TrEMBL record, chains A, B:
Family matches, as SMART domains: HTH_XRE (SM00530)
Pfam families, alphabetized: HTH_3
Protein species of origin: Gillisia mitskevichiae
Protein known as: Putative transcriptional regulator
Domain HTH cro/C1-type: 5-59
Length: 63, 63
DNA sequence: TTTTAATGTAAAGTTTGTTTTACAAATATA
DNA sequence: TATATTTGTAAAACAAACTTTACATTAAAA
């Protein structure tokens, strides 16, 4: 699953650490998701999409 | 996290077993998600939302 | 160029999602 | 009512998400 977190993070001028804190996970989790090592849980996907004011589908693309 | 799977399943006249097969998980997984025992993974949430032609946000409500 | 901040990565451990097997309870059908 | 189908649930095992610690690399700033 692909995602636009890195781009959104850049647009909002957030470091991985800052984003991690805002959605309450570790920096490594953000890094791993950005690098496609695994997909976020649904609750985390919701937190991220709310933070950026976007739908989950706009941020995460299945396949 | 709440969801409308049971309702959607009824509308589409699908058993838990049939839905499980369509989204490629076990019946127990569907049952557990319906009963709120745990949240689906993001990939599974995508499969379910595509099956019902709805957005993830329409089916799953965070908190 | 030196120092600091940010990112990439890895291993070990915990938690959560999922499967399999199995059985009991509820609902529909004969 | 008897039988079959559907749903609820539970335990053991495994997989995926996530944490913590730790260090190396890259990029930015002094």
């Amino acid at each position: 699953m692909k995602n636009k977190i890195k781009i959104l993070r850049a647009e909002h001028e957030l470091t991985q650490q800052q984003l991690a804190e805002k959605v309450d996970v570790s920096r490594q989790t953000i890094n791993a998701i950005e690098k496609g090592k695994f997909d976020p849980s649904l609750p985390l996907a919701f937190k991220i999409s709310k933070l950026f004011n976007m739908s989950i589908e706009e941020i995460f693309q299945n396949e």
